[in-house]
Hints:
The chain is of the alpha/beta class. The chain has a single domain (3-304), classed as Aminopeptidase, CATH 3.40.630.10. Helix content is 32%, strand content 20%. It has 8 helices and 10 strands. The chain has helices at residues 18-27, 34-44, 92-104, 123-128, 150-159, 177-191, 215-225, 284-304, and strands spanning 49-59, 62-71, 80-85, 114-118, 166-174, 205-209, 239-240, 243-244, 250-253, 269-275. The strands form 2 sheets. It has an 8-stranded mixed β-sheet, sandwiched between helices. A two-stranded antiparallel sheet has the order 7-8. Helix 3 (92-104) packs across helix 8 and helix 7 runs antiparallel to helix 8.
Amino acid sequence: MHQAACYPIGTPGQPWGEAERAQWRALQQPRRSYRDEVVTAIDQLGAHFEVVHYGQLDDPPERYPLLALRSRRWDQALPGALVTGGVHGYETSGVHGALQFLRLHAERYAGRVNLLVAPCVSPWGYAHIHRWNADALDPNRSFRADSPAQESAALMALVAPLADQLLMHIDLHETTDSDETEFRPALAARDGAAHVPGSIPDGFYLVGDAANPQPGFQQAIIAAVARVTHIAPADANGQIIGSPMVAPGVIHYDVKRLGLCAGMTNASYTTTTEVYPDSPRTTPAQCNAAQAAAVCAGLDYALAHR
């Protein structure tokens, strides 16, 4: 079945052009406040971290500042760690898990590591509860030279001076039921492709770098998160979202080739988290705590094995 036919925009089998993208864009409306829910929380952390304004997205009448927080006492002798959230803006716990890490846990790493945290890379996506940006582009497939996504390009410019100095980069994501009901059908329609229905894993998992898998690092994070929420099992084919499970709760992608955020640096330890917020076995608070626990476990392992 050509699932693109079921999507209300476009012609089955034909990629979208400018008219279809404009039609899609006209349907998107803000559904929550980035300023009230994210910018305010970042401002509240300003007493303890340096707030970095590294760009702005203009969507008249709205303007979305791109904000990061970094250690105030930056020490060039220390290793660096990058935490990113909200690359897909609709993935709520990626944003609020990053903020929770800063609020509750970051102080214990003071004097041990330089922290750079971008809690909400895609604020338009956050406000509109969407995977894509306002141009119907996926920011998490756009971390490459000459990126077409403003959000991705701005973050790469911010991180570029540190790209070879980072010990760790952890990118915080969610896999949601809406991936299957909305975003994968929309992707198929946009690209003029067939949508093959899939399944959503019930639980937390990690996407490691196939070129630099770091199994000890991945399993340290899985062990820590398992104390907060459940870990996704493999499906009947031994896979998670179509990729072989290489260790409990871990799959691999070629992150640099795919243009994923986790591949934007040369950090020794990298991973992408995936929380499942729609499970009846977890809560939003647990999802946020799981993301914060993943950051802590990743830092603890990386610092112990540098």
